[in-house]
Write a structure and sequence with these properties.
Layout lengths: L1 E4 L26 E2 L7 E2 L3 E4 L6 H8 L6 E2 L1 H12 L4 E9 L2 E8 L2 E8 L6 H7 L10 H17 L6 E9 L3 E9 L6 E5 L8 H5 L21 H25 L18 H9 L2 H8 L10
Parallel strand pairs: 2-6, 4-7, 8-10
Antiparallel strand pairs: 1-11, 3-5, 6-7, 9-10
């Protein structure tokens, strides 16, 4: 089943997410600063600096380091990566200092408020239910970009394949940010024509009646069944399979069963030993006629 899309077809995904929160990091591994090459150090105590919301003990637990152990540079680098992998920090440093190990962190900001601009077809409540970011949650650039893609998918399901979404971050005091999604909804992508390939028994017109997607017409503004929807397209495939299955069952039930014969007509009868001699002297057809009560042939008497 093929569908022709109008208005330029699918214009692609969003042009990319531009994040207003600028964090300059020249770090080889995310935001975890590598420890300079050196000999192993004994961990006398573990100090945590730079944390505001997240308890120091929690950060120590993330690091995997224990007081009293001897840590190699590789283990210190692994501790920094472990902390950064939690997604709670935008910068992490782990370094020995005078017999101690100091963990310096810069926390990711928390989300103060989320708003949407430019949306009309989908209201704020519908979009808020789609995204994963929530007020008072930790903000990350990756989650904002993922939410932008989720909004684009929501518009695609409503037939707007030209939708564009750009997340913008506005810094606020106390390490907080406002997250704004700027939206260009675009036009509806309508289905101008539906064709079927390989159908011989049923016409295109008959198959169109079996599916939910319809072609655009003068009354399209009243319905949404002519909007291109990939989920509805999958449903149409199932409906076509069901249609052909039902037609095959109908044809099968309309074929009359093969004729049935009385069991006696197919019986193979062996004469008893006492009659075997006389029966062999008779024509088989004459014996069979008498056996089933039919009119016997003349025996010459």
């Amino acid at each position: 089943m093929g569908m022709a899309l109008d208005r330029g077809g699918i214009r692609g995904m969003a042009r990319g997410a531009l994040i207003g929160l600028a964090v300059a990091l020249a770090l080889p591994i995310g935001g975890a600063m590598p420890v300079p090459a050196q000999t192993a150090v004994r961990v006398g105590a573990i100090l945590v600096e730079g944390n505001r919301r997240i308890p120091a003990e929690t950060i120590r637990l993330y690091s995997g380091l224990q007081p009293g152990q001897t840590a190699t540079p590789e283990q210190l680098n692994l501790a920094a990566r472990n902390i950064f992998a939690t997604g709670l920090f935008r910068d992490v440093r782990v370094e020995p200092r005078g017999g101690q190990v100091v963990i310096t962190v810069a926390e990711n900001p928390s989300i103060n408020r989320i708003s949407f601009e430019g949306n009309d077809v989908l209201d704020d409540d519908a979009l808020a239910a789609v995204i994963t970011s929530k007020p008072r949650h930790i903000f990350t650039r990756g989650s904002a970009e993922q939410d932008a893609q989720l909004i684009i998918e929501a518009y695609r399901r409503s037939g707007r394949y030209g939708a564009e979404v750009r997340p913008v971050v506005i810094e606020q005091p106390d390490n907080r940010v406002d997250l704004v999604f700027e939206i260009v909804e675009g036009d509806v992508t309508e289905v101008q024509g539906i064709t079927f390939v390989g159908n011989e028994k049923f016409s295109d017109r008959r198959l169109r009646r079996a599916i939910q997607t319809s072609e655009a017409n003068l009354l399209s503004f009243l319905f949404s069944s002519d909007n291109y929807d990939p989920d509805r397209l999958e449903l149409d495939k199932q409906l076509l399979r069901r249609f052909y299955l039902e037609q095959a069952m109908s044809i099968s039930s309309s074929v009359p069963p093969p004729p049935s014969f009385p069991p006696t007509a197919r019986a193979s009868t062996s004469p008893s030993p006492s009659r075997r001699a006389s029966s062999t002297a008779m024509a088989p057809r004459t014996w069979s006629a008498r056996r089933w009560g039919l009119i016997p042939r003349s025996s010459g008497r």
